[in-house]
Amino acid sequence: MKDINIDESILVKRMIVTFSVLSIMFILWSQLTHLNSYAASYDQVDFALALDRFDLMAMQPHFPGYPYFILGGLIVHLFVNDQVSSLTLFNILFYFSACIPMYLLVRDYLSKTHGILLTAICYSSTYLVISVNQPMSEGAALAAFSWYFWSLVNSLKKNDLLSTILPLFLLSVLLGIRLSYLPFTVGLLILLYKKRKSRQFSSKKVIYSLLIAGIFQFIWVFALVISEGNLKGFIKLSLAFTSGHFNNWGNTVVADNQSIFERIKIVAFDNLLWTGLTAQTVVIAVIYILLFGLFIFRLKRFHFITDHTMQFAILMGGAYFIWALFAQNSDKPRHILPVILLLIFILFYNLLKESRNILTYLLCIILLIAQSYSSFKLLKRQISEVPATIQLANYLKKNEQSSIVYTWEETRVFDYENVQVPHKQIETYDFFLHDQSYYKNKKILLTNKVVEGFKEQGNDLSGKIKVIREFKSDPIFDPVYDEVVLYEWVNQ
After folding, report:
1. Measured between alpha carbons, how far is 3 from 355 in angstroms, rounded to an integer?
2. pLDDT in tens, the chain (492 residues)
3. Which DSSP string corresponds to 324-343?
4. What is the CA radius of gyration of the chain?
5. Does an H or E element contain 295, and which?
6. 3-state secondary structure of 472
7. 488 sits in which H/E element
8. Reduced to 3 states, what is the DSSP secondary structure of residue 393?
């Protein structure tokens, strides 16, 4: 395939820049005109309630508090009445700002045209876009990570005070938005190692930098301690939540019964590649297969070892992938979001740095169009399709006033939706049998998550339950609660 000099081909240059800028603006317009206002999960309700009253003990939000994310939502909430929309809009605007560091990251290594193209491809990645359009901290965390990534590379090139302090501060912002991005601390350690090795920093400066980084983290942690009332209560709450996450409901490698190979398959292939990279879209998958083919074909020309930007991207991405594999919920692809961003960045950074092949440009433009169209289609569906948990809440309001419902995490959504039907979160079968005996004159209802939990505890429910109603929504938005089944308990 013919190579072209993009600096000499004005037509190709203009076409690439035009498609890239239009793609970015189209995605931003699509998000702003399709603002998600559903709080359809336990976590989303936690965040929404925090804008009315910040209270860790009341799970508003849950530990570790996500203070900078809530602060951003509160600022937007000054102008937007709805709490969910405020959080979503903060995500959208902050994510849009990430175009700046993404472009600056590659400006010294790629042409302006290639830099804009890479930025547009990263920004328009469909699963990232629809994740940003939810009232969750991941969208803001992606933006904060982009700024942090750039600050690391920038600090390596410069040795002035601002460039030195900025990554220390931005790491605090990142962890204050989403503490589970802790593995990206490895980026700061790499930076300090490189500065010490190149004699930009003395050992004393390295220690001072670590102390300053600790002070920045202390600011938001101290604010959480104050909000909780005292240090003892905060530590007790943090230990309880951390223990629950790793040993009980967090679906980590400790709490889950999956084999390591099954877990790798789910995280790497189902979550990262099929859902994360391609948004479960065959056309996008085919384009990426072709692009990865070009990447592998030219692999010998890439200089990973001597390229500082690639070293940061690969080491931070690898550290977080291992963390996501063992310490995050494998059922939720959103936990792999930063690796998706880094994978796309690594791919196109190298393709556009080394290639002048017209096939590469053509595939990039087709990918931009495909991602933009897929993002628009899913954003439209995201606001028009009522989530399964809220469908159930609406059904209960209209049809089951004389019932009691035993649920798992759905009860948090019921509270937020003002469902008047009595509902309880239940975990064990024995406690359920005891509790339901007090409601002889009520219809006893259970959700499928409760039923699944009872079965996992070794209980046979054959002939004891019957299906009342099923509620479904698109699993790409919430693969855990995309299908909710309401059962009636008939063994009374």
Report:
1. 8
2. 555 555 557 888 888 999 999 999 999 999 999 999 999 999 999 999 999 999 998 899 988 899 999 999 999 999 999 999 999 999 999 999 999 999 999 998 899 999 999 999 999 999 999 999 999 999 999 999 999 999 999 999 988 889 999 999 999 999 999 999 999 999 999 999 999 999 899 999 999 999 999 999 999 999 999 988 888 888 888 888 777 655 655 455 555 677 889 999 999 999 999 999 999 999 999 999 999 999 888 776 666 667 899 999 999 999 999 999 998 989 999 999 999 999 999 999 999 987 677 889 999 999 999 999 999 999 999 999 999 999 999 999 998 778 999 999 999 999 999 999 999 999 899 999 999 999 988 999 999 999 999 998 999 998 999 999 999 999 999 999 999 999 999 975
3. HHHHS-TT-GGGGHHHHHHH
4. 24
5. helix 282-297
6. strand
7. strand 483-489
8. helix
Beta bridge partners of 470: 485
Q: Residue 92: what residue type?
A: I
Q: List the structure tokens of 459.
A: 């209980």
Residue pointed to by tokens 């390596």: 156
d(CA 204, CA 188): 16
Render the burial of 108-139: b for 16+ CB within 10 Å, e for the rest.
eebbebbbbbbbbbbbbbbbbbbbbbbbbbbb
Tell me which residue has tokens 């600011």.
219
Token pair 């931005």 is found at 170
Contact criterion met (CB below 8 Å) for 142 and 276: no
Pairing of strands 465-472, 443-447: unpaired
Q: What are phi and psi of 423, to 5 degrees?
A: -145, 145
Residue of 2, 14, 20 lying closest to 355 (CA atoms): 2
Element (H, E) at 291: helix 282-297
Q: How far apart are CA 135 and CA 418, in angstroms?
A: 19
Cα separation, 437 vs 193, in Å, equals 64
247 neighbors 254 (Cβ within 8 angstroms): yes
Per-residue burial over 18-39, b if 16 or more Cβ lie within 10 Å, else e, is ebbeebbebbbebbeebbbebb
Q: The tokens of 112 are what?
A: 């302006």
Strands (E), 10-76: none
Q: For 131, what's the count of Cα atoms within 13 Å in the CB-facing half-sphere?
A: 28
Q: Would you mind telling me the total number of residues written for the chain in this entry? A: 492
**What is the Cα–Cα distance from 178 to 68, expressed in whole angstroms?**
9
